Amino acid sequence: MAENLNGQILIIGAGHAGGSVAALLRQYGWTGPVLLAGAESRPPYQRPPLSKGLLLGKVTLQELQLKPDNFYAERGIDLACGRQAIAIDRVARQVRFETGEPVNYDHLVIATGARLRALDVPGNALDGVMSLRTADDALKLRAAVRKGLRVAVVGGGFIGLEAAASALQAGAEVRVIERESRLMARVASRELSEFVAGHARAHGITIEMNASVCRFIGTAGQLAAVELADGRVFPCDLALVGIGVLAQQSLAESAGLACEDGILVDARAATSDVRISAIGDCSRRPVPLFERSARLESVHNAVEQAKQVAARLCGKPVTAAEAPWTWSDQFDLRLQIAGLISPTDEVVMRGDPAAGSFAIFHVSQAGVLRAVEAVNAPMDFAFARMAIGRRLQTPPARLRDPTVALKELALN
Ligand SMILES: Cc1cc2nc3c(=O)[nH]c(=O)nc-3n(C[C@H](O)[C@H](O)[C@H](O)COP(=O)(O)OP(=O)(O)OC[C@H]3O[C@@H](n4cnc5c(N)ncnc54)[C@H](O)[C@@H]3O)c2cc1C
Predict the structure, then answer these.
(1) CATH code for the domain of 400
(2) Distance of CA 148 to the CA centre of its chain
(3) Atom of ligand 1 nearest to the CA of 163
């Protein structure tokens, strides 16, 4: 594609990945038509503040926009909001939409994100049972939360815990119900899980571990309680279900693209069809530093893959692979995680959890730094992230030693 910068690029999904790739294509010199079509009624916006600043009333929806209102028109990007794609015809190189004419493409970028995993239990459609993925969800949640409201958060992952912290700060009584034996079990180490659970409890959040919701109980269509598989019943006025997401891959699957818990792409975000790329939460990609593939649900991943596609299509060099990273804000904690955590890695603690600022390093058996979980330790995080990208090999004792500057380790 690099030789023809005039072709028509169609991007399906106007979220963080779709909005970023549209902007980067223009930045890198694409001169042909770019159509960015998204199912939501809004231009691309940032989702992370939905469970943090927006719920707390610290930022407005306008401030969450990825780009200013006039950005797309000024750059000749045709932004079509409220347009849901329903089929891809790879032979005709055409996409059909729920409304309006089909659109042809020379290159198609699928950036359809993820959809919420449903909690398939009786009562899940009662008024008061909510979820959080879109700006509309966040606005609805913010309008409902008030002083004294009894909130049950089902799922102790990042989003559930962030929303729990925000609801508590708004005066609600909050109970987190987690099926596993610890919080954030999918993405965090046991050490971090325990610290975060202690912190949340100290702020007044009740946490039930090993607790599985079996039904929501209602009165006249309104949520009144949540029942657990062990028979316990907790009265509540609002339940927020946050039990993870699934790749939004049905369009790609129906079109015969290779999918496996995500649309399969290579290290430059190309799918099994050379005319189609897939980026962001909907894709499963190789993670070069870790010799494995993963579906990464993060802003960093969305932007990195957007860069890969824009660079590839415009004939620019692709930037070197970086360690994947993400963050979470809960009360006064800023958690930052880079790399991928493996249960076989050695855990090395730097700093004192009791002081509220520390970093947990994960070192492979070969002595390579593989991941960091930093708590209110942004400098440790920044240098460790760099060091992971460089596959730093260092004795764990040096990481643990506060007199050894991480900067020296990362840059040497
Ligand atoms: C509440 C919340 C908090 C988060 N916090 C963090 C955080 O702190 N740090 C972090 O790194 N990440 C965070 N994330 C994750 C991060 O927001 C996502 O990884 C990122 O938005 C992925 O971008 P995306 O473009 O792939 O998907 P999305 O942003 O989900 O965008 C996909 C878009 O495609 C549209 N779409 C889907 N199907 C179609 C179709 N058929 N036709 C047209 N359009 C379609 C969808 O409507 C959606 O607008 C958070 C997510 C949420 C929900």
Answers:
(1) 3.30.390.30
(2) 30
(3) 1
